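New to this. Please check this record:
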Amino acid sequence: MIRKAASRPNRYAVLTADIVGSRNIAEFRRRRDQKLTPVSKAHIKEKLVVSPYAVTAWDEFQTIISKPAHAPTVILDLRRYFHPMKLWIGIGIGEVSEPYKRPVNVFSGGAAFERARKAMDFLKGKSNRQRSTFIVSDVELFDAVANTLYYLHDTLIKGISSKQWHTINIRLQTRSQEHAARKLLLDESTVSRSLKRGFYWQIKETKEAMQRLINAYF
């Protein structure tokens, strides 16, 4: 039985993302901002993050997620909106000082930022075994389970094509396979096959399982 960690003040998830191979992407700054600006606005509107994403380096950006349990939704959104760009995503869970001052990389700090940096350093290291998501908290068992789930998840999504991501995006937007088929001008069986080949159900289950796991611990 999982025992939920004692309630603590200012528990947030800090996300640091790095766009892999940015030097090889033509007009990178423009393309980065074309993707980052709308997702930042959407996440602010949905109250998934406490402030806009801050570009902290040429190919790196950062934000504070309003609740740790929102992290799986944010991770999935970044993966699908930034495709075909590849992202390393490091998550640190813990306390944050001054979370609502902007930009977060100037005014905020705390254990969650330190852990997000530790997660990113791991992803960039030689021992990451091709992972693209890593989480660091102060609960060892949680980290072991969460990172195993994301290791499997990241292995699956590497094989998703642009066409399959498009179908997944429409399915998520419409919240119905029937409505997705109508919008895509396809029959439902074709949409179903595309979703299955694109591991849609595994992606959905991973997000939901991670939300439950985070809620159980934090």
User: Anything to note?
Assistant: The chain is about 55% helix and 15% strand. The two ends are 15 Å apart (CA to CA). Residues 126 and 144 are 19 Å apart (CA to CA). Strands lie at 11-19, 54-57, 60-65, 87-95, 133-136.
